């Protein structure tokens, strides 16, 4: 994807240098809007992207899309063309990318923006140049329908590129990744598309004054999302600290809860769970053993899988009671409480935690490199009785990829 985006950017740069920059004031205004959107995406120093968090710059994406769809500026025809669109989006994106410490995800997003905005500009700019869109302006909603249709294709193309990148990184099935990305296109994705589609005709009527007026709501939304992400990061740090309490107190082996959380999230993604469910699943997996803190005598090695079902349920209920006092969503406590129930009575998230926890405990008990295959085979033999077979096979696929998540 990066190679294709680099080739497109090189062609656009050469073409623009030969023909010259058309309407430089307009190009500078849209470039500044995109750069501001990228810079507003920056995280505070030391903050890291949470697992599964979307690397979005809504204002930058909307500005890039609007420039690709732009046909007029205050009644005068826009003459920038597809090549200049790619150059402006690329240069502004690089300005916003320069101060970022985590350039990998941002570079992938910039590559997608170049490809999707370049494709949108190649589709719509010739129509402006040839005159069909201008001649349709007085015929009801035809131009708007054209822009909306192009927006849908652009969103689908961006989802396809994102899924392809995740496929290359994780090895997960492309179909499942594409469905996840299409579902994730709602919400803020719809706001990005709507702002981009509105900005283009608004600039055609009101000129460049439309940029600050119509982009301000999305900028405020972006700032609100950043504050929400910071609050969520604080909550996740609290959950992680509570999860480590069982290790510090010696109730569970070092690293057990983190391994269970990472594998549970990967298995949940393999089974097609959405991002909200994955977050709840990961929090529950981090705190799945917290009920052991209420025990007078620690369980040997923290292994709850060999315990009698009644004792497992008692520890799970104790853990759920603790989780309910932490301020996390109630669904997390439900997962913790029900992880010891018969799997047919459990929600899929509790089935995942139950299976992954047993796998990690058994793999840790077996000596040597054969512990992991032995634990997986033991899960398969118990499948249909104690563990959901589909969850066990999803775990096997994740382990075959080295435990990588999507």
Instruction: Give the low-pLDDT segments.
Output: 44-53, 137-142
Principal-axes shape call: elongated
Q: What is the tally of helical segments?
A: 17
Distance from N terminus to C terminus (CA atoms, Å) equals 17 Å
Question: How would you sum up this structure, described in words?
Answer:
- The protein is elongated and about 80 Å long.
- The longest helix is centred in the middle third of the chain and has 39 residues, at 210-248.
- It has helices at 2-19, 24-40, 58-69, 81-97, 103-130, 132-135, 142-170, 174-184, 188-206, 210-248, 256-270, 275-286, 309-323, 330-338, 348-365, 371-382, 389-400, and strands at residues 72-73, 76-77.
- With 406 residues, the chain is mostly helical.
- Strands 1-2 form a two-stranded antiparallel sheet.
- Helix 4 (81-97) packs antiparallel against helix 5 (103-130).
- The protein is 71% helix and 1% strand.
What attributes does this structure have?
406 residues, mainly alpha, two-stranded antiparallel ribbon, 1% strand, elongated
Could you write a compact summary of the structure shown?
The protein has helices at residues 2-19, 24-40, 58-69, 81-97, 103-130, 132-135, 142-170, 174-184, 188-206, 210-248, 256-270, 275-286, 309-323, 330-338, 348-365, 371-382, 389-400; strands spanning 72-73, 76-77. The chain is built from 17 helices and 2 strands.
Helix and strand topology:
Layout: H1 2-19, H2 24-40, H3 58-69, E1 72-73, E2 76-77, H4 81-97, H5 103-130, H6 132-135, H7 142-170, H8 174-184, H9 188-206, H10 210-248, H11 256-270, H12 275-286, H13 309-323, H14 330-338, H15 348-365, H16 371-382, H17 389-400
Antiparallel strand pairs: 1-2
Helix pairs in contact: 1-4, 1-5, 2-3, 2-4, 2-10, 3-4, 3-5, 3-9, 3-10, 4-5, 5-7, 7-8, 9-10, 11-12, 11-15, 11-17, 12-14, 12-15, 13-14, 15-16
